[in-house]
Amino acid sequence: MKLIIKIIYYLASILSIFLFVISVQHKEKKHILLTQAFATMCYFITYLIVGAYSGCAVELIEQTKDFVFYSYENKNKKIPLILLIVFASLLVLVSIVTFNGLYSLIPLLINLAYFISSYFKNPKHIRVVMLICGFIWAYYNFKVGAYVIIIGNVLEIISAFISLIKYKEEK
């Protein structure tokens, strides 16, 4: 990798880690979604640089979903089920198009879990999914060579665990 690309890779990786880790420390779901939308922007750049195109496509859809769901949350409106179905369908379609072996299905499965968890009003669902999926993301990132992000996966797991304790009163 050329030096400028390496610098962009490391900056995007570090920023994505930071944003995703702090996202679940927000109490309100709308703030979680907005922070995660910016984190996925950085993840997209990281996956693009390492050539993990399935991860890129999934992050782009995830980012769009986060901004759309955020707009509903910000207006205190219920997210229509059809939006969840549309975004999940796009995710499946992109995963079929970018299929490159079993490993390329990992972002699909993880993000389906994220999509479903972010549909529900209670942010506890997002925190639980983040805790579980952090382990799966670490495996994926190892397999595609996005090693710096694995550090973030560990921090995401810790952050999700802390936020579950911090906001345990949520039903």
Topology pattern, helix = H, strand = E:
HHHHHHH
Major beta-sheet overview? none
Distance between the termini: 47 Å
- The total of helices stands at 7
Calculate the mean pLDDT score and round it: 90
Shape category: globular
What do you see in this structure?
The protein is mainly alpha-helical. It contains 7 helices and no strands. The chain is globular. The chain starts with a helix and ends in a 5-residue tail after the last helix. The model has no long low-confidence stretch (mean pLDDT 90).
Essential attributes:
171 residues; mainly alpha; 7 helices; globular
Outline the secondary-structure elements.
Elements lengths: L2 H21 L5 H22 L2 H22 L6 H17 L7 H15 L4 H21 L2 H20 L5
Quick recap of the structure?
It contains seven helices and no strands. It has helices at 3-23, 29-50, 53-74, 81-97, 105-119, 124-144, 147-166.
